[in-house]
Amino acid sequence: MSLQLYPLVFEPILKERIWGGTKLKTVFNKPIQSDSTGESWELSTVAGDISRIAEGEYQGKLLSDLISQFPEEILGEAVHKKFGTEFPLLFKFIDAKEDLSIQVHPNDELAKKRHNSFGKTEMWYVMQADENARIVVGFKEKSSREEYLKNLEDKTLLSILQEVPVKKGDVFFLETGTIHAIGAGIVIAEIQQTSDITYRVYDWDRVDAEGKSRELHIDLALDAINYNTTDTERTYTQEKNKSNPVVTCPYFITNYFPLDGEVEIKKQQESFTVYMCMEGNFTIKYNGMEWNYKKGNTVLLPAAMREYRLEGEAVLLEIYI
């Protein structure tokens, strides 16, 4: 039995968050049910949150089951060799109506030891930002465990952290250990390792409807934080109908692909490819068939789909390993 090759899209896994809003519905038409939906997990194999295929031959099937059945055809030979049948990346849209907590993610070594998980290297593409929106990312100057703890205790942590104003199209690459928070009024596309390990260190003293504050992970975070300054912002070219490099790291490669017309793609890499549509509409043509997508769609092309055409007017993020 061989894999039926076509682009895979998934039912969104929607997450209620104390800081979430309604933009996932108003901007992307996601089927949210509340006024505080913070995340749409577009493509995930995190335990308990495994993506289900939304249409086509494999509609209703879990991605992890399909990978187990056809690992090389979906992941690619090189990715399968490295990760077995694990899908190594997680893709999300995030709507921050309010500030997210100040937090940090552990590296592979620490995450493996403590949680039997990958670490969480991630990147953000800003899809929409309200006026005066900003993110918190890294320390203003080289810090230390002692200085950090004193400011945390005195509720002056923000005074030693870097706040960066953001606008649509900005990209930030966050290596593990980078202390950070997405600020209010921002919608981002997030690409990260398959991990749901977050150490929350400060949550703005907020409480939920029942008066409860969220759990903090201050002790766990101490060994995870990089107290040096970090350079997180990435600039990139925007040449039409080309893969413009944005982030290249050991975990993923992300390109900015402004589509205008029709482009033939012949893949070289031994990897799956994911397209996240930031703007516009586009069509994938393969083997005499075509599929249409729009802003807010995330599409997984199995590695075995080596030659296909992209058509339309759209801004795409192109991701592979």
UniProtKB/TrEMBL annotation:
The domain of life is: Bacteria
Q: Where does Zn(2+) bind?
A: 105, 122, 180
Q: How is the cofactor bound?
A: Binds 1 zinc ion per subunit.
Keyword Isomerase assigned: yes
The yes or no answer to whether the keyword Nucleus is present is: no
One example of the protein's molecular function in GO is: zinc ion binding
Q: Which residues form the Mannose-6-phosphate isomerase cupin domain?
A: 247-320
Q: Which cofactor does it need?
A: Zn(2+)
Q: Which residues of this protein are catalytic?
A: 200
Q: Which InterPro entries does this entry report, sorted A to Z? A: Carb_Metab_Reg_Kinase/Isom, Man6P_isomerase_Firm_short, MPI_cupin_dom, PMI_typeI_cat, RmlC-like_jellyroll, RmlC_Cupin_sf
Name of the protein: Phosphohexomutase
> What is the organism field in this record?
Flavobacterium lindanitolerans
